[in-house]
Write a structure and sequence with these properties.
Its EC number is 4.2.1.49. It is found in: Cytoplasm. The chain has about 550 residues and is an alpha/beta fold. It has 3 domains: about 100 residues, no CATH class; about 200 residues, Urocanase like domains (Rossmann fold, 3-Layer(aba) Sandwich); about 200 residues, Urocanase superfamily (Urocanase fold). It has 18 helices and 17 strands. The strands form 3 sheets. Strands 3, 4, 5, 12, 13, 14, 15, 16 and 17 form a 9-stranded mixed beta sheet that branches. Strands 8-9-7-6-10-11 form a 6-stranded parallel beta sheet, sandwiched between helices. Helix 10 packs across helix 11 and helix 15 packs antiparallel against helix 17. It is globular and about 65 Å long. The protein binds nicotinamide-adenine-dinucleotide. Nicotinamide-adenine-dinucleotide binds next to strand 7 and helix 8.
Length: about 550
């Protein structure tokens, strides 16, 4: 039975033992589609996160997807083109049930303005990374990544600890909303600015924000007191980051860490220029897109100038994956790329070993299934400090949103080993229902994103999108249940291509084969991508784990 959802009453959280579809595989994908809307930012408009990342093209497309998932057989494959179902093919029971291609625009045409035109005509939609692939699990999906970034900075600059340290950031949306909790879990005093009071209130309601300060003076006083007492705290503040960052700098305050996760990638549907209220922005989104783009870009220039000032004054400043430096450089900030990207600066050694944001969702809706898998994780990987530390923290701090889910950064072989044990637990009836395994698209072999994931690759292969395409084709031949290729929409048009995958552990021998093939090959390709680019960690992984990399003599 779907559970009532206090956040979006019309979008209940799926769950329960009863199937509406003809099998668990189809039911699983249906529940994941329902889940992304139940935790989405604006489900009435099918928007899940990242300004315009949608679960389906429109409501007619959504209805047809739901009907097809409910009635289709295991030997069929549903084709989805930019959020719209276009065909139901006769394939075979080992083929994926759903394959998708979302927002892939031919190179010379892949520009934000052309995307908006296609969007207006109803010909395309952007799936974000995980929205259109029905893999989004709320802000908890990026929380470990954000936490690991903060901890890498703590190790490098602050003796391994963020107690008594001040983090300044902005953006409390679908993904940015993870920052306050990640900062607090890392022990810091974190100030998060958002222009939209509703977003701040949402993050306070689920416990990610401790307090919302009434104004900047009060916010800085709360941060100052927490820093002096070395007390972890997350404070929200409603305001425009492009105005408030410079003001904080002018007061002579130098935070220890500065970043930003507003939707700066999208100058129309995401970023809010300073000096403009939300009502004006909403009306310009309809009939003043050019004016809005220019105002957003001018505002981002000020925003990034302030970030650069903080950097010069000694803050650790990084781009948190929202294209803010790229937008600023387009606006004339020649040194915007003095700010490093988080992937290259902190996480690349993990990605080079294909360690990345793996996750699983309890399709039963029962939190006890996730608790059982938490125990299993700790039993299986007792010496993996990242995992044992993370599971302890996650259990203590992260409230579930939508279907109970967990994210854990596991690598090659580890993901498969966990998933196979979970499939066996499902088979033995030790879990309340099947578990769906997935991962963020920001994963080793799965993404080409030259200003985010693949910036400054060792061999200069930043913009080569063959890897995610190979990944997707390989995952289809590896029997995954859902495979998707996404490219960028809005401000991301022309900037990225990624691949997503979902595999369902329903306890059957067929699921065992699917999980083994798909998850193993996915991370193997990740290791191969980095080995090919010459990363020592990947070459070591190839040796140690016997990854089938073909090296030219
Ligand atoms: P979202 O659209 O749900 O939220 C963006 C938030 O920014 C909104 O709450 C909005 O009110 C706020 N905002 C916009 N302009 C502002 C301004 N000038 N000052 C203050 N607040 C402002 O988006 P999201 O899902 O939270 O994603 C945010 C960004 O992070 C996107 O660019 C997204 O692509 C990127 N992202 C990065 C990662 C990563 O791995 N680092 C992962 C997912 C998303």
């Amino acid at each position: 039975m779907p559970k009532p959802n206090s956040r979006h009453p019309s979008f209940p959280i799926p769950g329960g033992p009863d199937l509406r579809a003809k099998g668990w595989r189809q039911e699983a994908l249906l529940r994941l589609l329902e889940n992304v809307l139940s935790v989405g930012e604006d489900p009435d408009n099918l928007v899940v996160y990242a300004a315009l990342g949608k679960a389906a093209r429109n409501w007619a497309a959504h209805k047809a997807i739901v009907e097809t998932l409910t009635t289709m057989h295991e030997d069929q494959t549903l084709l989805i083109q930019s959020g719209k179902p276009v065909g139901l093919m006769k394939t075979h029971a080992k083929a994926p049930l759903v394959i998708m291609a979302n927002c892939n625009i031919v190179g010379q045409w892949a520009k934000a303005e052309y995307f908006y035109e296609l969007e207006r005509k109803g010909l395309i939609c952007w799936g974000g990374l995980t929205a259109g692939a029905w893999q989004y699990i709320g802000s908890q999906g990026v929380i470990q990544g954000t936490y690991e970034i903060f901890m890498r900075i703590a190790e490098r600059r602050f003796g391994g600890d963020l107690a008594g340290r001040f983090i300044l950031t902005a953006g409390l949306g679908g993904m940015g909303g993870a920052q306050p909790l990640a900062g607090r879990m890392a022990g810091a005093a974190i100030l998060c600015i958002d222009i939209d009071p509703e977003r701040a209130a949402k993050r306070k309601a689920i416990g990610y924000l401790d307090e919302i300060a009434p104004d900047l003076d009060a916010a800085l006083a709360m941060i100052d007191a927490a820093v002096k007492e070395r007390r972890a705290i997350s404070i929200g503040l409603v305001g425009n980051a492009a105005a408030l960052y410079p003001e904080i700098y002018q007061r002579g305050i130098v935070p220890d860490i500065v970043t930003d996760q507003t939707s700066a990638h999208d100058l129309v549907y995401g970023y809010v220029p300073k000096g403009m209220d939300l009502a004006t922005v909403k009306s310009l989104r309809k009939d003043g897109q050019g004016q809005l783009m220019a105002a957003s870009r001018a505002s981002i220039v000020d925003h990034v100038h302030a970030m650069l000032d903080f950097q010069t004054a000694g803050s650790e400043v990084f781009d948190n994956g929202n294209l803010i430096r790229t937008q600023a450089r387009e606006g004339g900030v020649a040194n915007a790329f003095d700010i490093p990207i988080f992937t290259e600066a902190y996480l690349r050694p993990l990605f080079a070993r294909a360690i990345g944001p793996f996750r699983w969702m309890a399709l039963s809706g029962e939190a006890s299934d996730i608790a059982r898998i938490d125990d299993l994780l700790v039993e299986m990987f007792p010496d993996n400090k990242i995992i044992t530390n993370w599971v302890r923290l996650a259990r203590e701090n992260i409230p579930f949103e939508g279907l109970p889910a967990r994210i854990a950064w596991l690598g090659h072989g580890e993901r498969t080993a966990l998933a196979l044990k979970v499939n066996a637990l499902v088979a033995k009836g030790e879990l309340a229902g099947p578990i769906a395994f997935s991962r963020d698209h920001l994963d080793a072999g799965a993404m080409a994103h030259p200003n985010i994931m693949t910036e400054r690759m060792k061999d200069g292969s930043d913009a080569i999108a063959d890897w995610p395409l190979l990944d997707a084709m390989m995952l289809c031949s590896s029997m995954a249940d859902l495979v998707v290729v996404h490219s960028g929409g809005g401000g991301y048009a022309g900037y990225m291509t990624s691949c997503g995958v979902t595999v369902v552990a329903d306890g059957t021998a067929e699921a065992e084969e699917r999980l083994d093939n798909a998850l193993t090959n996915d991370t193997a390709l990740g290791v191969i991508r980095y080995a090919d680019a010459g990363y020592d960690e990947a070459l070591d992984e190839v040796e140690r784990k016997g990854v089938p990399h073909i090296k030219l003599g």
